[in-house]
Design a protein that fits this description.
The complex is a heterodimer of chains A (281) and B (284). Chain A contains eleven helices and no strands. In chain A, 41% of the residues are buried. Chain A has one domain. Chain A is mainly alpha-helical and 281 residues long. The longest helix of chain A is centred in the middle third of the chain and has 42 residues. Chain B has 284 residues and is α/β, with parallel strands linked by helices. In chain B, strands 6-7-8-3-9-10 form a six-stranded mixed sheet, with helices on both faces. In chain B, a hairpin with a 2-residue loop joins strand 9 and strand 10. In chain B, helix 4 packs across helix 6. Classes of the chains: A mainly alpha (281), B alpha/beta (284). At the A-B interface, helix 1 and helix 4 of A face helix 2 and helix 3 of B.
Chain lengths: 281, 284
């Protein structure tokens, strides 16, 4: 058991270390931080709109940077190791293949966790900075100052960041699955992006075809059922938009989405393990 | 029998795309390597040496037949615990330092704590990678240093069997000699070493037995002494013999019906001469 944990953590640690020692990840993180910081200079709106804009752009930056880092990181997981042949010297050890896959995923999660943590801290810092600026300029009325503080210190930010992290964890699991059947990094990135887009569009299609009142043909229904089972519905994470809009989102709903995500992550990793188990290296 | 590696009817076919047919890489390979032996896998490029090694390591699944390592079916965790592997080229994560590489491989072997750290120190000393070199990233290493770091990584789990795929390919003569000396040292410690090489002189220096493969099939197998010694011939090297005595000796032998096959002044091997020409500190 301890040996298994050591091997898992060794693979995860190495995956994490490889990523953080590459310049491309630092550049992507910097790109995200610049967007978050730059948003602070849009001052043409009312303070509510400014905060909404800051949060909207901040969460979008975390999501986009996380998606890029997750895709690039995952693409290198297996095909990258096969291309560099470093996988030979790892898999000839007393390391089970599932330990390798799950360790790789864990390393990617560490990386995404670090990235989301840094960027969320940056968003929080920008919000607090804006709070100070706005209270100095518009907060002479204590009621307005309280409203500004309420916007800047909105605890729902935790919920939004948590949902972004969970969504990125699902995308990473998809990328890990594709990396076990892929022969190139390009294939992993292309397939993951394609499924990501389908995941966003599937509920639109479902509404269009199934809930518009028209009678859908049996094969359309069957196709949509299969797609909705195979591909996670990424519109569920639109709760983040509700949070940005200032609407109340219960933690129960957030945790339900997290539970849905955990099921998909587990299934994807099991499928990845099965696919990788019989693969010649 | 006390066997380190045994293969029976090992066969591997690769699919060449969807409509490309199949490529036969290894066919019906039967091989037995005894514990403590240095065993050479010889053959031209594409003869199936690396494929056979990968099947023994469990990286490739045989199409037919089976391979065993110390009595365990190849590819199982038990079998992989008995094996250390050094690939042909330095396929190591080059963002790590030498010490980090060995530590990573140690952890992959389930090791940890002070036991692993002590083992790393012992191995870095064995492969002669100093403290400073051990801290440098692998991308700054020469090929010889990389192979030595890789060898330390292969040895970290204290395996019974070491598989070295072209361990001296691309390494300079001094580095190559070091790796050869290491192989001999490992044999002295009771390890079984299976290696492939194109440098036949080196194989001759260290191998107890060899197998020759061609297009995936075994052509020859046996002890070097049996394969290479000329039956019914005798060779003598001598010093201090005068020219006249030499001619007289030759005539005496011919009178007794001995056919002289060759007669020449012995030459030093270029590798030995080259290494002797280098400054002492480089040779070390």
């Amino acid at each position: 058991m301890i040996g298994c944990l050591r091997r898992l953590l060794a693979v995860a640690g190495n995956t994490f270390l490889e990523a953080v020692r590459q310049k491309v990840f630092a550049v992507l993180l910097l790109f995200g931080l610049v967007i978050v910081g730059g948003a602070n200079y849009f001052t043409e709106f009312s303070f509510q709109e400014q905060f909404k804009f800051l949060k909207d752009l901040g969460y979008a930056s975390i999501g986009l940077t996380g998606l890029l880092i997750g895709l690039l990181g995952a693409a290198q997981l297996i095909p990258g190791e096969i291309e560099k042949r470093t996988i030979l010297t790892a898999l000839c050890r007393p390391l089970r293949r599932w330990e390798f896959i799950w360790g790789k995923y864990l390393g990617l999660l560490f990386l995404l966790g670090l990235m989301v943590g840094i960027m969320a801290t940056a968003v929080w810092a920008v919000l607090r900075w804006k709070e100070g600026q706005l209270i100095a300029s518009e907060g002479s009325d204590p009621a307005v100052a309280d409203l500004i503080r309420g916007e800047a210190r909105d605890p729902r930010m935790l919920q939004a960041v948590f949902l972004i992290g969970v969504k990125l964890a699902v995308v990473a699991a998809m990328a890990v699955f594709f990396s076990t059947i892929a022969t190139s990094t390009t294939f992993v990135i292309a397939m993951t992006l394609m499924v990501y887009l389908i995941g966003h569009l599937q509920s639109v299609a479902r509404e269009q075809w199934l809930e518009s009142g028209e009678t859908a043909r049996w094969w359309v229904k069957s196709f949509l059922v299969v797609v909705s089972l195979l591909i996670p519905d990424f519109n569920l994470y639109n709760l983040i938009d509700e949070i940005v809009a200032g609407n109340a989102v219960h933690w129960r709903a957030t945790l339900e989405v997290a539970g849905y995500s955990v099921v998909y992550i587990f299934v994807l990793l099991v499928a990845a393990t099965v696919a990788f188990e019989g693969r010649d290296i | 029998m006390n066997l380190a590696v045994k293969t029976q009817g090992l066969r591997k076919e690769f699919a060449l795309g969807w409509f490309g047919g199949r490529l036969l890489a290894v066919e019906g390979l039967d091989m037995e390597v005894k514990r403590g032996e240095v065993f050479g896998l010889l053959g031209p490029n594409g003869s199936g040496k690396s494929t056979a090694m990968k099947m023994i390591l469990g990286l490739l699944r045989p199409t037919e037949g089976r391979a065993e390592v110390c009595g365990y079916r190849a590819g199982t965790i038990h079998a992989r615990r008995q094996i250390g592997f050094l690939p042909e080229n330095p396929y190591f994560p080059n963002f790590l330092s030498g010490v980090e590489l060995v530590r990573y491989y140690g952890k992959l072997s389930g090791m940890g704590g002070s036991k692993l750290e002590a083992r790393i120190e012992e191995l870095m000393e064995l492969v002669r990678l100093g403290r400073e070199a051990g801290k440098r990233p692998l991308r700054t290493y020469s090929k010889g240093m990389l192979q030595r770091a890789g060898l330390a990584g292969a040895l970290v789990g204290d395996p019974e069997v070491l598989m070295l795929d072209e361990p001296t390919a691309g390494v300079d003569p001094a580095g190559s000699r070091e790796i050869r000396d290491l192989i001999l040292e490992l044999r002295g410690r009771g390890k079984t070493v299976i290696f492939s090489s194109h440098l036949l002189e080196q194989v001759e220096d260290v191998a107890d037995r060899v197998i020759i493969l061609h297009r995936g099939k075994k052509l020859r197998e046996g002890r070097l002494e049996d394969l290479l010694s000329h039956k019914g011939e005798w060779q003598v090297r001598m010093q201090g013999i005068a020219d006249g005595d030499r001619r007289e000796l030759r005539a005496w032998l011919e009178n007794r019906g001995v056919r002289i096959v060759s007669e020449s002044a012995p030459r030093e091997r270029l590798e030995d001469y080259f290494l002797r020409s280098l400054p002492q500190e480089v040779r070390k």
